[in-house]
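Support request from a user on the community tier.

User writes: "When I paste my structure tokens into the form, the page sometimes reloads and wipes my input. The last time it worked, I copied everything first. Here is what I submitted, just in case something in the input itself triggers the reload:"
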């Protein structure tokens, strides 16, 4: 049956109307979405305290957010709200040196049971060693030297006469007062660690290189000096090692491997002086490593972070440490913990601090390496060997 003309017109009208309606709905929806994009942000509209981040607005190209463009910080009420990552040479983590990778893999596999035992049972001994090493301004990671020397066995004695946790020789026991009234205190953890700290300090003051220091702890000063001469006068351990006895060369690699096992990385005591210098330069150039954050309120106050040291600031700015301590309590502790610190300075010293910032930092780096430690003690004249073979 043919549809009537009225029916066909009605059908066409409804179809056109439907199409127009749908088109209108789409256009309106698009307009609404485009308007919403100017006011919608990911996350909260305003950042919560301590979580200031650059919020990206959705919308047409070229739209500029007016919200603060600051880096995230973590609030800490004990330090006026800010605690950055710690930047400290003694705590720095570095990759395992590629020159030791194969040796470390083999050594750790072979000694895994013994190393694991000490890792779980030696916490008390390590705490004592850490305390004493810190008193002598030495990296606490040097305690791993005792691990490879004696496996932390107090009464381990070698045919050479070395005894105790640190395998100190008899003449060293006499030199550091460990033989008294017929008693040998090389088996005493605290006393032997103090003696080892003095010995390590004197060796490091001689070579200014931790790897050469550890080599000399094993082979003696004479052995290391002979190797340096054979290497054409180079004091780069990675060149000198080829002229050292195999036992000494492996002794240093054992220390690096043990450091990696306990720490999960290398550190300042597993690097040569050349590598350490490069690290210092990188830290000095780092935007976040050592920085004056801002001058606040009182123009005699500067907020700082990084590895600034009281002694270095006082030396460069000619400030008495006693006066410094009165207006800056717990200064070194706060910065070593990675905290920001509002540094108070005497009148006229703020401008000097800003102008001499780089000089102060260089002094700080030098102090960190402890090249002029008050605990240093020169080896006796004529001493050529600390033979522990």
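"...and here is what came back when it finally went through:"
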């Amino acid at each position: 049956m043919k549809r009537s003309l009225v029916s066909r017109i009605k059908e066409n009208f409804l179809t056109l109307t439907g199409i127009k309606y749908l088109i209108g709905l789409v256009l309106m929806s698009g307009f609404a979405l485009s308007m919403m994009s100017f006011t919608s942000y990911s996350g909260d509209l305003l950042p919560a305290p301590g979580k200031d981040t650059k919020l990206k607005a959705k919308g047409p190209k070229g739209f500029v957010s007016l919200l603060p463009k600051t880096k995230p910080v973590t609030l800490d009420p004990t330090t006026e709200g800010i605690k950055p990552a710690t930047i400290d040479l003694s705590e720095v983590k570095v990759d395992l040196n590629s020159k030791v990778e194969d040796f470390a893999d083999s050594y750790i596999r072979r000694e895994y049971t013994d190393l694991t035992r000490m890792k779980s049972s030696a916490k008390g001994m390590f705490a004592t060693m850490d305390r004493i090493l810190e008193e002598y301004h030495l990296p606490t990671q040097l305690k791993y030297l005792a691990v490879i020397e004696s496996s932390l066995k107090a009464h381990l004695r070698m045919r050479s006469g070395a005894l105790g946790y640190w395998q100190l020789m008899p003449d060293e026991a006499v030199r550091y007062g460990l033989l008294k009234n017929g008693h040998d205190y090389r088996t005493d953890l605290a006393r032997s660690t103090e003696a080892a700290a003095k010995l390590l300090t004197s060796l490091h003051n001689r070579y200014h290189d931790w790897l050469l220091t550890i080599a000399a702890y094993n082979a003696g000063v004479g052995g290391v000096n002979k190797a340096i001469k054979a290497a054409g006068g180079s004091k780069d351990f990675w060149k000198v090692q080829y002229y050292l006895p195999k036992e000494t060369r492996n002794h240093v690699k054992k220390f690096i491997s043990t450091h990696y096992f306990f720490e999960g990385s290398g550190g300042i005591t597993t690097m040569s002086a050349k590598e350490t210098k490069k690290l210092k330069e990188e830290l000095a150039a780092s935007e976040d490593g050592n920085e004056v954050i801002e001058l606040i309120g009182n123009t005699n106050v500067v907020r700082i972070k990084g590895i600034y040291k009281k002694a270095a600031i006082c030396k460069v700015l000619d400030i008495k440490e006693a006066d410094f301590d009165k207006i800056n309590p717990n200064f070194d502790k706060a910065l070593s913990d990675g905290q920001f610190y509002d540094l108070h300075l005497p009148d006229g010293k703020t401008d000097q601090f800003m102008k001499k910032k780089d000089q102060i930092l260089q002094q700080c780096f030098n102090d960190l390496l402890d090249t002029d430690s008050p605990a240093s003690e020169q080896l006796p004249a004529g001493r050529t060997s600390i033979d522990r073979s």
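Agent notes: The reload is a front-end session timeout and is unrelated to the input. DSSP finds 15 helices and five strands in the chain. Residues 284-368 form one domain. Escalated to web team.
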